[in-house]
Amino acid sequence: MRAFLSFSAILLTLISLGAPVFAAEPERRVELSGDADYFGFDLRTEQNVSLDQCQSACIADRSCRAFTYNPKVKWCFLKSDFNQLNTFVGAIAGKVVETAGGEADIGAPPALDFVSDDLLQQARDVKANLALTEDQLGFGVNGLIEMAHGELTAGNFVAALKAFRGALAITPEDGALWLETAQAANQFTGTDVASEAALAALNGYQLTRTAEVRANALATLAFALDRLQNYRAALQAYKASLELVQAKTVETAYLDLRARQGFRVTGHTVDADGASPRACVQFSEPLLKNGPDYSSFVTLNGAAPQALEAKESEICIEGLSHGQRYKLVLRQGLPSSVEEVLETPVSLEVYVKDRMPVVRFTGDSFVLPSTARRGIPIVSVNTENVKLRLYRIGDRNITSLLTSSQFLTQIDGYSEERIKDESGELVWQGSVDIKTELNKEVVTSFPVDEALPQRKPGIYVLTASSATGLTQDWDTRATQWFVVSDIGMSTFAGTDGLTVFARSLASAKPLAEVELQLVAKNNEVLGSATTDADGRATFSAGLIRGTASMTPAVITARKGGDDYVFLDMTR
Question: What are the CB-based long-range contacts (under 8 Å, 24+) for 316-319?
Answer without folding.
Answer: 316/278, 316/279, 316/280, 316/281, 317/278, 317/279, 317/280, 317/281, 318/276, 318/278, 319/276, 319/278
